[in-house]
Amino acid sequence: MCPSCHEARPAHAGVHWPTPCPAGLVPPYAVGEYAGALRALVLAHKERRVLALARPLGELLATSVAASLATIGAGAPVLLVPVPSRAATVRQRGHDPTLTMARAAARTLGPDVRTAPLLRLRPGVVDQAGLDAAGRAANLAGSMTVPAPAVRRISRRCPRAHVVVCDDVLTTGATLREAQRALEAAGVRVHAAAVVAATRRRSAASH
């Protein structure tokens, strides 16, 4: 990371509600607006495979996760559940950026935090780029699932874990809300969502 980008990295995170907000969405935390240096970092890692950025982006994601956990106290384990990517997209990019960032965030936060890639995408989901809020919601409705064996493993190993859904960017909230729905349908309670950045039309106002 260049010195100017390093200096521009936000040190704090807050709740960034999308407008309009999907009904029932857990509080989504972000370190800042998806613009400038933050946008450049995310795109370089995601689209140009600058894999060395996984660590600093993971540290930013960790800042969002830590903010989401500030009200619950210490002691309970934490599970970071990255939103899934389409298999074709992962093949095209050559890596899974959200999973990589979530793992880096877990390492930053310490041994009580683990990454749990529980979510799977059903066939038929198309690329979200260019879709408006309604289109994204329709594209993702019912698109994610959690295999029962994965839930059983998590229930045995981390029965009291606080679950945080993770993504790189918050746009309309449709992806985070679908991930939350799938996890809760499988019996996994979701505490919050954490991302690196929220798009320009999002605001850090109360919901």
The CATH class turns out to be Alpha Beta
Can you tell me the overall shape?
Answer: globular
CATH topology descriptor: Rossmann fold
Helix-strand sequence: HEEEHHEHHEEHEHEHE
Residue fraction in strands: 15-25%
Find the count of extended strands (DSSP E, 2+ residues): 9
- Number of structural units classed as domains: 1
What is the residue-mean pLDDT, rounded to a whole number?
Answer: 86
The total count of helices amounts to: 8
How many angstroms does the end-to-end distance come to?
Answer: 34 Å
CATH-defined architecture: 3-Layer(aba) Sandwich
What structural category arises from helix and sheet content? alpha/beta
Low-confidence stretches: 202-207
Describe the structure.
- The C terminus is likely disordered.
- α3 crosses α5.
- This protein has a single domain, classed as Rossmann fold (3-Layer(aba) Sandwich).
- Strands 1, 2, 3, 4, 5, 8 and 9 form a seven-stranded mixed beta sheet that branches. It has a two-stranded antiparallel sheet with strand order 6-7.
- It is α/β, with parallel strands linked by helices.
- The chain contains eight helices and nine strands.
- α8 links the parallel β8 and β9.
- Helix content is about 40%, strand content about 20%.
- This is ComF family protein.
- Belongs to the ComF/GntX family.
Provide a concise account of the structure shown.
By secondary structure, the protein is α/β, with parallel strands linked by helices. The protein has 8 helices and 9 strands. Strands 1, 2, 3, 4, 5, 8 and 9 form a 7-stranded mixed sheet that branches.
